[in-house]
Amino acid sequence: MSVAEYLIPYDFSPVTIAGFMLVLGFYGYGLLNMPEEDRPGSGRILVFMVGVMMCYAVMQTRFDYYSQYMFFVHRGQHLILHHLGPFLIALSNPLPVMRFLHGRIKPGIRRALVPLGWIYRFLQHPAIASFLFVGLIYFWLWPPIHFDAMLSRDLYWIMNWSMLLDGLLFWGLIFDPRSPMNSNALGYGKRILLLALVAIPQMVLGATIVFSRGMVYDVYEVCGRAWPMAPETDQLLGGLLTWIPPAMMSILGILIILRRAMREDGKITPYSEELKATHS
Amino acid sequence: MSNRFRLPLPILLPVTTLIAVAVLMTGCFSDDQSWRSKDISGLMPELAFELTDTSGETITADETDGEIRMVFFGFTHCPDVCPTTLQKLSRAVKDMPAEFQEETRIVFISVDPGRDTPERIRSYVDFFSERAIGLTGEEQALRKLSKRYRTTFGYDDPDEEGNYNVSHSGAVYVFDREGDARLLFRPELSVEDIRADLVTLAEESRT
Predict the structure, then answer these.
(1) Do B22 and A228 touch (CB under 8 A)?
(2) What number is the ipTM of this complex?
(3) Taking 80 as the threshold, does the pLDDT of residue A264 lie above it?
């Protein structure tokens, strides 16, 4: 196979291509037109691009073929869509670009978008965000659902998109660049708690897959593998990918939040007069 | 207080609703009809192919319309899965009432066109059942067809004698008389279960 064949989509999805083009287009437009002082530096732009392109690559290249026919590659795909890609995108802090773009929206349209804001705030409640984050992994990996999702093209796309969108929501909440000291962003302690909480069920699930003696996901047996590989090996690798890297991502997230919290320690003055009074 | 999770009613309610919906949704995925195999209605597109039959002629799916078709991807050098599956399907068809046997077709599609010539496929399928037909085609056409049914195949590196293993789907895709995807037989399904589902399907699409 030539390099070009590896790069073209296995299962061409116009919606996915359009989605990624829109994101990159808006990001580029924001960068070019926003005021100099708000513009993210080249490092942040690079991290954003790497995050977006990773998600694109696992959805619209030959990688998607292997994800459909090998359990462990599928787990790798979701690791990128739900963890690594959104992790990098959120870490690059695209918030100033989004704020600028939001300012450019016509007031009429902005008003129409208000209900979206409500849904967003509802989904970003820490309890709901963490429930969704873990719940989606369990939902799509529940054997009968997983079987259907791998058989039906529509369900397959819904699965991948739901993982990506939920990943963006969750890591956006965790790496919210605003400080909880002077905004209503989630407190650092709570962010750390969430990261630890979501890691545990993922580790349990991963370990369950690794240590199960029978075949949990027989759909790959049924649909044929991309290349002949022992089903047990495929399942073992897939289980390990569900278990270890997500737990490491949580720890990495905790370290980043801790560093941010330590930097802010004692730096920020209490934001209200009332609080100032209690401190003096 | 501000450092703790507070769950006031407006938040608690949606959370419980969310859980309730998730639990209820599981009901949507259970089968209403008591099929013994996997119901795949609505999950897959209708039957369509253009391949070569064992006499070297081009054959399309429409030409087999009006029959219940059991599509199976395999290769004639297959050591275990293919002979077992074809054996099971053939026995299940034989155990059906005579009038239904005439309307049932086993469609064996070889995904190893490099070694499987139409003649070889013919002697292979004839050995198992008179209700079986064997098809194959260019690798590109086979790839397109297998992609349509969310399956694939792959080749191992050949050994010194040129023998190689082929990974392929172990399942049988069942299409009704109209060509709609209906059932999926997993490799471990018994002959009796296959027979029972075929009879149910044959009776159902008659009425």
Answers:
(1) no
(2) 0.79
(3) yes
Residue ranges making up the domain that contains B66: 38-206
How many domains are contained in chain B? 1
* Chain mean pLDDT for chain A: 92
Residue B174 inside a domain? The answer is yes
> Which among B42, B156, B169 is the nearest to A223, CB-wise?
B169
Task: Please report whether residue B46 resides in a domain.
Answer: yes
User: Residue A125 and residue B152: Cβ atoms within 8 Å?
Assistant: no
Question: How far is B106 from chain A, CA to nearest CA, in Å?
Answer: 18
In a domain, residue B168? The reply is yes
CATH of residue B100's domain is: 3.40.30.10
Q: For A176, what's the count of Cα atoms within 13 Å in the CB-facing half-sphere?
A: 20
Q: Residue B119 domain-assigned?
A: yes
Task: Assess contact for A168 and A86: CB atoms under 8 A.
Answer: yes
Task: Check if B60 contacts A (Cβ < 8 Å).
Answer: no
Average pLDDT over residues A241-245: 97
Residue A226 has what pLDDT? 84
pLDDT at A280: 47
By CA distance, what is B45's nearest residue in A? A152
Distance CA B112, CA B156 (A): 12
Q: Count contacts between A and B (CB, < 8 Å).
A: 85
How far apart CA A82 and CA A241 sit, in angstroms, is 13
Q: Do B169 and A187 touch (CB under 8 A)?
A: no
Cβ separation of B151 and A218 shorter than 8 Å? no
Those residues of chain B that have pLDDT short of 70 are 1-19, 21-33, 205-207
Kindly report, residue by residue over A172-215, the tens digit of the pLDDT.
Answer: 999 999 999 888 899 999 999 999 999 999 999 999 999 998 88
